[in-house]
Amino acid sequence: MAGDRRLRILAQLAGHEHAGGETKRLCEVCAEVTGATGAGIMLMSGDVPRGSVCTTNDVSALIETLQYELGEGPCVDAHNLDRPVLEPDLANPETPRWIAFSAPAVEAGVRAIFGFPLQVGAVRLGALNLYRDSPGPLRDEQHADALVMADVAAQAVLLLQADALPGQVAAELETGSDFQYVVHQAAGMVAAQLEISVGQALIRLRAHAFGNDRPLAEVARDVVARRLRFDAGGGEMDTAR
Amino acid sequence: MARETLLARTLVELADTLVDDFDVVELLTLLADRCVDVLDVGAAGIMLAAPDGDLRVMASSSEAMRVLELFELQAQEGPCLDCYNTGEDVVNQELAIVNGRWPRFAPEALAAGFHSVHAIPMRLRGTVIGALNLFHIEPGEMRPADVVAAGAFADVATIAILQHRASLEAQVLNQQLNHALNSRIVIEQAKGMIAERERLDMEQAFAVLRHHARNNNVRLADVASAIISGTLAPSSLDRPSTRAPS
């Protein structure tokens, strides 16, 4: 059925309570749906502050720290290559890679590791990292879930950057308005209006939507129809009024 | 040009993408355009299933077609969805008399100026990866020969999309479709940027993008990325030549 996988993930995200807050929950769902021992979300782009959004445990945190410090690893590769990077057997890889990263990661108990890029069109935010304490590839279902999860996580990162409230993040993810191309057309227009990156423009659009309590797609349609501009003297200008 | 020549040329063109430097968005844009050129339809569009199972609009021969396809997805009814869900051809559905089948989609498509609709599955062995939509403006049935030709186009495009692997490996296919969907978003972002800088609407912005890509023999997604990263200014894009005064 259409959209099953995404709906199931969103339901899991909504039904998953955690004291650590929204981002911790996001990471735990990432690990759960993909059958990983632990998960983390690393940001590596100029559009958002570099750093970790969340990790599920100490090993996930170490995996991220190592990659930031060494500048190599599956997430760094996934981000740079713009595609998933899968290492099902880190202790005995078919092709040895990540000379500095692998030894301390294996030492900490990592046996399989997978990096999935977080991207929204041309906006490359970072990567989702998934690890397991036993070797073996992702099953097809888990791989598909990880792709959808990376997409959901990328949207969540943009929403958090726009200072969305916890409830708003879940609500906006459920509307799935990011699939509406009008949001991306509007982001291109706002980027040109403000001379900012498309990533920043996506965040500004969301912030405007939340600030005015309007659906994101509706705000985007106004921008594309040229009823709303973002470059009018420091604030948004509603040209219809 | 004779129809047979056009058909043959299109099949060769589609098969040509089987070689290096393959790009799904590029292929599907070509497929949509050629359907309009060769099959006597008013508009064509292609939807592919994303890894999450949802269909997404990947290419359309016109902005009107694209809006309708997006509407179809939003309303969750229409020829493309039926075709994808059943894996069967949907042909010669006259919009004026199929209101019961698609109560929301049919009036919308009629209002957009279409008369009848068709959808052909994109399928290889057991896997349906999407569907090709063909919309007629003029009254009249789609000729059986055109239905066969549309099926052939859809088959070649499907093989091209799936060919990067020796077998139907689900992970590679999903990754490739995911990449294609993301390319589509890059193109939309670039269209917005071009539209704003050059004072164009989205259809015109896409026409400029595509014209530049073809003229310079580069991929749409690559031109789009260059626009977004700022290495290519919208003002320096090759423009489609305006029609000479008669």
How would you describe what is shown here?
The complex is a heterodimer of chains A (241) and B (246). With 241 residues, chain A is an alpha+beta fold. Chain A folds into two domains: 4-166, GAF domain (Beta-Lactamase, 2-Layer Sandwich), CATH 3.30.450.40; 176-238, Arc Repressor Mutant, subunit A (Orthogonal Bundle), CATH 1.10.10. Helices cover 51% and strands 17% of the residues of chain A. Chain A has ten helices and seven strands. In chain A, the strands form two sheets. A five-stranded antiparallel beta sheet of chain A has the order 2-1-5-4-3, with helices on both faces. A two-stranded antiparallel sheet of chain A has the order 6-7. In chain A, strand 6 and strand 7 (235-238) form a beta hairpin. The longest helix of chain A has 22 residues, at 140-161. Chain A is elongated, with a radius of gyration of 19 Å. Chain A starts with a helix and ends with a strand. Chain B has 246 residues and is an alpha+beta fold. Chain B has two domains: 3-163, GAF domain (Beta-Lactamase, 2-Layer Sandwich), CATH 3.30.450.40; 181-236, Orthogonal Bundle (Arc Repressor Mutant, subunit A). Chain B is 52% helix and 15% strand. Chain B is built from nine helices and five strands. Chain B has helices at 3-16, 24-38, 63-75, 79-86, 105-111, 144-162, 170-198, 202-215, 220-229; strands at residues 43-49, 55-60, 90-94, 116-124, 127-136. Chain B has a five-stranded antiparallel beta sheet, with helices on both faces. In chain B, helix 1 packs antiparallel against helix 2 (24-38), helix 2 runs antiparallel to helix 6 (144-162) and helix 8 packs across helix 9. The longest helix of chain B has 29 residues, at 170-198. The A-B interface holds A 1-6, 82-84, 119-123, 138, 140, 143-144, 147-148, 151, 179-181, 184-193, 198, 224 and B 51-57, 66, 70, 76, 81, 170-171, 174-175, 178-179, 182, 184-186, 188-197, 202, 224-225, 228-229, 234.
